[in-house]
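Thread title: Can someone regenerate the structure for this chain?

I was given the following input by a collaborator and told the matching structure tokens would be attached. They weren't. Posting the sequence so someone can regenerate them.
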Amino acid sequence: MLQRLKKNYFLLVSTFLILYFFFNLLTGQRGLISYFEKKQILNNLKQEELSIIKEIKDLDFKNSLLSDNLDLDYIETLIRERFLFGKKNETIYIIKKNDAKN
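Best answer:
Regenerated them for you:
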């Protein structure tokens, strides 16, 4: 038995090393599965970055409307939305969405 093991020593070590490297190729911190997870996280972060940049540009635009040169139309729109203000003899309707499904 020991004699047979000595003859197949190279085969056993080679098989073990191949299995070890194959297992580490798929799993582990730098494995294939981890690569795809990190790639997905990167894509999500890029999408989040784009949405935040868009929001910043929108806020910068709104801030520019409220700077030294006031845009009276924009301020009127803000007052109407937030305080439900209207002009004299003007009727304001509030439409609420009904999310209940029958």
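The mean pLDDT is 82.
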